[in-house]
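--- STAGE predict ---
source: upstream dedup step, 1 unique chain passed
mode: sequence only
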Amino acid sequence: MRSKIDNLVPYDPGLTLEQLEKKLGKPILKLASNESLWGPTPKLKAYLQNNLERLNFYPDGTGGKLKNILAEFWGLSSSNLCLGNGADELIFMLTAAFLDPCEKVIIPTPTFSSYGIAVTIVGGQIIEVPQKNLAIKLDSLVPFLTPEIKMIFLCNPNNPTGTYFSEKELENFLKKVGEETLIILDEAYIDYVQAENFPCSRKLVKKYPNLVILRTFSKAYGLAGLRVGYAVSATKTIRQLEKVRPPYNVNTLAQEAAYVAFQDKKYLTRVIKETCEEREYLIRELTPKGLRVLSSQTNFILINIKNSPVVWEKLKKEGILVRKMTSFGLEDWLRITVPPRKFREQLLICLEKCLGN
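--- STAGE serialize ---
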């Protein structure tokens, strides 16, 4: 066993929804993983059915069809994109391609745990920079910028907080980072952003060759079960990334589903509109109850609740599964995925009941 991974804990996905419902003997409303309860475009079912006869053949190893339509959106070449089995795989590929043992990586915390896990597995050295008020302040990272820093992970909007940094803040920071340092900008939740001053990564990625953008089809597009993500960056960066990409890493149905979902702009617009409306409604309803609810630009909200593990257990018994934040070091917080309107009252009534007991 490699000593570097001695302290890593295998990922625990917990019980499946079916297993949990069987255990509790009731239907469960799962609001723990930031999945879209709206689901993917209805156009997808028939399209995937027509592609089932191709499953005896390997997928397109280049992902050319999907990459071409994404490249058109970004105003770039397909050589500026790399597909991954979800953004998680791309995170691991980035560390494998660019990080030698003991090289330093800056990670502001709390944030998505996959960054630190990937760095640890390849033997990199993590420099954690705790963030005050649960919002990433890029200026707080500047004192840690040295020529030895090989990589910086930034999640915007951030998971698990839902907060964001602006385009002005990001560009000021990018100007201070050395050209040999890769900045990984994870924009998994960008589709839910309504803030006008949010960074325009389609512009910035063309200006800064050391910037890598990560996107996913797991959230707003509703394809979490098929695992499709992609990276956008300078050609030389993507070329290195392709060297460590497993052959045929994105399966046939995943590629086709992402291709269809990306083109159904009407459905995506509706999902985003309704999600954001429900998000703001929940914040308005919960804040007057004396709860601290962080302003969010994602499809989830983070709530400060006293005795949150107890409330979490009560909610589960009521048939609602949310996410405990203890693994993020946030003992008195719960993260709740924003559900469609039909589940709104169920969530609010159960939450009030569990807080009152």
